[in-house]
Amino acid sequence: DAGVIQSPRHEVTEMGQEVTLRCKPISGHDYLFWYRQTMMRGLELLIYFNNNVPIDDSGMPEDRFSAKMPNASFSTLKIQPSEPRDSAVYFCASSQGNSNQPQHFGDGTRLSIL
Amino acid sequence: QKEVEQNSGPLSVPEGAIASLNCTYSDRGSQSFFWYRQYSGKSPELIMFIYSNGDKEDGRFTAQLNKASQYVSLLIRDSQPSDSATYLCAVISSSGYALNFGKGTSLLVTP
After folding, report:
1. Which of A103, A104, A110 to mutate to test the interface with B (most CBs of B within 10 A)?
2. How far apart are CA A97 and CA A27, in angstroms?
3. Minimal Cα distance from B6: which residue of A?
4. What pLDDT, in 10s, does the model give residues B53-107?
5. A57-84 burial by CB neighbour count: b if 16+ within 10 A, else e?
6. What pLDDT sits at residue A1?
7. Is A29 helix (H, G, I), strand (E, B) or coil?
């Protein structure tokens, strides 16, 4: 079975540009999570969805960040405008059912904002 | 602030020894506990999960949970150089489905 698929794997762009990260969760999983990982702060939850509906976006750093899940098989995380401090690895994860089920991570997108 | 604390390490153990990784958490209502392994430049990979007090064994790995002490640990028996990685403790808080991660413990298994 295919795991969580993220694209692109790497993104390098200049400050001020719009960045869109994409995620396809594991088929049948009804929870989708976006995390950001940096050396300083470790893995931090940005937002999560249940059945395509955003449940908790309290981790989204500021209004420059937005996330959507138009259907059960696709989600985007957008940063506009991007800033150098947004440079990090962004992971998408999905899980099925209740909170006891483990989350499975995609390979991540390594984002560098110059 | 619901926190998950881990010693950052590095923890160095010789090949064949037992590696003991520890984690404490602040949310007393937490119910689900996970250990992920992350190799450098890779994504977190689930190793173990535990929900009940006591021990849970899976191959060379044993997870231990003590809810009264708010403490969860991971033991790796017969450590191998391929076990060298960062081990992340993650806890699902009482308030939702999101994982709160510790910053991880770096493990180095020396031949």
Report:
1. A103
2. 13
3. A42
4. 999 999 999 999 999 999 999 999 999 999 999 999 999 877 777 789 999 999 9
5. eebbeeeebebebeebeebebebeebee
6. 63
7. coil
Query: Chain B 20-79, CB below 8 Å of chain A: which residues?
Result: 31-32, 34, 36, 42-46, 49, 51
Q: Of A56, A91, A99, which has the smallest distance from its Cβ to B31's Cβ?
A: A99
Instruction: Tell me which residue has tokens 């999960």.
Output: B49
Could you tell me how far CA B21 lies from the centroid of its own chain? 6
Instruction: Kindly state the helix (H) or strand (E) to which residue A70 belongs, with its residue range.
Output: strand A65-71
User: A-B interface: how many C-beta pairs under 8 angstroms?
Assistant: 52
Count of beta carbons in the 10 Å neighbourhood of residue B34? 23
